């Protein structure tokens, strides 16, 4: 659909009478009402002002694009208004706005409409096109200018795409950094190669830029760079390259080349809604990461609430303690009694679901719940997840012998009944007691460790966080830290968070101290690394490590290991599993010494990188 299917001469005003922002919105809305595009003018105007309240749609360069998607719109439409004198529309650049494109989309607007409307924003970034609109003498000239420019764009898109249509999906366990870095790397390399690519991201906030079935049908191949489950059955019959998400960050050109050559197996759907079994990463890691990624919101939210409750006193949540405070109790009840209590069942449920699809979820949740209540803790939850998942896989094979007429009762009766029963019995009589004893033994061992051994443990855990910056080794250390928090031992996770913050912070510091050794793009990335490091997002170091692994990776491992060891020397404990600088005030021990440990590790990394790297000439 073209923009001119939505913008007609009837919805163009070449000389607006409005003098204020409010008057502009009302005048343009009147045109929509007059042309029969609205069900309810007042509701539509309210929706426009609600959008303006979030942030102004006066984007600068004399342009404003007020828009709303609401049930008050009968038919999708664009109305254009022009003001020769200009109107104060609270534009981002503080200047008067002259060109106003009001977008009206119905609540159920499909992607075709929305893509056409989003194309309008791209058109308006062209100054020569804006000049034509500003100087048009008739409505027909406005329409003609848009048609010509849109035709040029669509021709360029077709030429750049050629006959090779490449799609990609990126997803990492936490959906915070790797997902978007992989997408950016693929898009940047594709642009450099003259290949158009659309990348769907499966991040922490959900699926963005979702691939349509038509795009999938037309694609020459699909790249799936993911370390967790993504929807795969839609790719049935297509050439699909399945790799870890890190490959898209480090080897985007290789992946795009493979896609263009169709150097990949044809994917065959399993029949489930969400199957994913990449060659490069299968089995334990994939299933574990699916559990961890879904567990993380409960861990972070619940863990930080627990930690905040400690501000009132370590026992302030206990009504029988002299330091009791009702707010501390409320925080503990919500964070520990509810959110944190769901951590292990959610972990087990999603591990089982990764293995056996949806039929594994209920048995996994029940097994995890039994592990949590039985004292088997985090390790018991892991076992429950894998146990339930593979039991259900076995049940699927066993029940495949049943008549086809019974197919409908399998997911609603047979799988949950026998899956929960068998998982529960094995957990109850075989797993829980031995694992509980093992947990108690581990806790006692950690509590009785000498200073030397604790420093060694901190050294190892801190270093692990920097080895692959969000990969399997990093996640193994992070998972161990969460398990220790669950067991009541906060020291290991203090080393883990310090070690995870050092790589991006150290590299950010290096770009500041040794500017001549980094390109302009790397120095800009270094500014972002300050924020990512402070927020405990180790993945911020990946672009630097990918560009110069021989110098960067050893430097960040050493810095992280030193930071982890120092936290043990300083006797720091961390009851919150995530949060970076935001949870430093609530560490057990001296928060200033914890900051010192992180700064020392970051400085070591910065000095090593700065001394090893050579000056760059741009």
Show the helix and strand layout.
Elements: E1 12-13, H1 21-34, H2 41-54, E2 58-60, E3 63-64, E4 67-70, E5 77-87, E6 97-106, H3 111-124, H4 127-135, H5 139-161, E7 166-171, H6 178-193, E8 197-203, E9 206-208, H7 213-218, E10 221-226, E11 240-243, H8 245-250, H9 252-261, H10 284-309, H11 326-339, H12 343-356, H13 361-373, H14 377-399, H15 410-447, H16 451-467, H17 472-486, H18 491-513, H19 520-534, H20 542-547, H21 549-569, H22 591-612
Largest sheet: 6 strands, mixed
Oligomer: single chain
- The low-pLDDT segments are 158-162, 271-282
Question: What is the first-to-last residue Cα distance?
Answer: 44 Å
How much is the average pLDDT?
84
């Amino acid at each position: 659909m073209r923009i001119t299917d939505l913008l007609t001469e009837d919805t163009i005003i070449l000389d607006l009478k409005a003098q204020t922002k409010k008057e502009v919105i009302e005048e343009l809305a009147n045109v929509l009402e007059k042309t029969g595009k609205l069900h309810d003018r007042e509701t539509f105007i309210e929706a426009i002002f609600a959008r303006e309240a979030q942030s102004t749609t006066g984007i600068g360069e004399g342009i404003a694009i007020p828009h709303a998607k609401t049930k008050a719109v009968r038919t999708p439409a664009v109305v254009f208004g022009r003001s020769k004198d200009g109107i104060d529309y609270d534009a981002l650049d503080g200047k008067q706005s002259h060109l106003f494109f009001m977008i009206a989309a119905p609540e159920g607007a499909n992607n075709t409409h929305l893509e056409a409307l989003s194309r309008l924003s791209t058109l308006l970034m062209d100054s020569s096109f804006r000049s034509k609109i500003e100087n048009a003498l008739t409505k027909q000239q406005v329409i003609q200018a848009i048609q010509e420019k849109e035709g040029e764009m669509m021709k360029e898109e077709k030429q750049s795409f050629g006959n090779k249509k490449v799609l990609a999906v990126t997803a990492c366990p936490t959906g915070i950094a790797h997902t978007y870095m992989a997408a950016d790397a693929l898009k940047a390399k594709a642009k450099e190669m003259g290949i158009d690519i659309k990348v769907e991201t499966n991040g922490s906030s959900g699926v963005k830029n979702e691939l349509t079935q038509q795009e999938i049908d037309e694609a020459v191949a699909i790249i799936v760079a993911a370390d967790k489950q993504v929807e795969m059955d839609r790719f049935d019959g297509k050439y699909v390259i399945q790799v870890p998400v890190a490959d898209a960050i480090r080897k985007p050109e290789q992946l795009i080349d493979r896609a263009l050559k169709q150097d990949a197996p044809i994917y065959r759907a399993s029949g489930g809604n969400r199957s994913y079994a990449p060659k490069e990463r299968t089995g334990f890691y994939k299933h574990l990461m699916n559990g961890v990624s879904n567990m993380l919101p409960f861990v972070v939210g619940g863990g930080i609430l627990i930690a905040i409750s400690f501000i009132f006193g370590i026992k302030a949540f206990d009504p029988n303690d002299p330091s009791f405070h009702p707010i501390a109790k409320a925080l503990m009840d919500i964070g520990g009694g509810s959110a944190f209590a769901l951590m292990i069942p959610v972990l087990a449920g999603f591990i089982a679901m990764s293995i056996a699809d949806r039929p594994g979820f209920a048995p996994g949740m029940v097994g995890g719940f039994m592990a949590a209540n039985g004292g088997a803790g985090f390790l018991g939850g892991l076992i429950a997840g894998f146990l339930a998942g593979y039991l259900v896989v076995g049940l699927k094979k066993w029940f495949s012998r049943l008549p086809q007429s019974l197919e409908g009762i399998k997911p609603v009766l047979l799988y949950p009944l026998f899956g929960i029963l068998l998982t529960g019995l094995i957990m109850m009589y075989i797993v829980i007691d031995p694992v509980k004893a093992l947990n108690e033994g581990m806790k006692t061992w950690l509590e009785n460790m000498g200073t030397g051994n604790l420093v060694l443990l901190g050294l190892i855990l801190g270093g692990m966080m920097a080895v692959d910056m969000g990969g399997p080794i990093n996640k193994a250390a992070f998972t161990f830290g969460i398990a220790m928090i669950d067991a009541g031992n906060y020291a290991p996770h203090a080393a883990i968070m310090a070690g995870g913050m050092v790589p991006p912070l150290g590299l950010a510091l290096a770009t500041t101290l040794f500017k001549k050794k980094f390109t302009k793009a790397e120095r800009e990335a270094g500014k972002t690394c300050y924020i990512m490091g402070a927020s405990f997002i180790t993945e911020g170091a990946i672009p630097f490590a990918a560009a110069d692994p021989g110098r960067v990776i050893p430097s960040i491992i050493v810095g992280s290991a030193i930071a982890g060891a120092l936290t043990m020397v300083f006797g720091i404990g961390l009851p919150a599993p995530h949060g970076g600088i935001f949870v430093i005030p609530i560490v057990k021990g001296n928060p200033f010494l914890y900051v010192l440990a992180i700064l020392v590790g970051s400085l070591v990394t910065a000095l090593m990188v700065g001394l090893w790297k050579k000056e760059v000439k741009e």
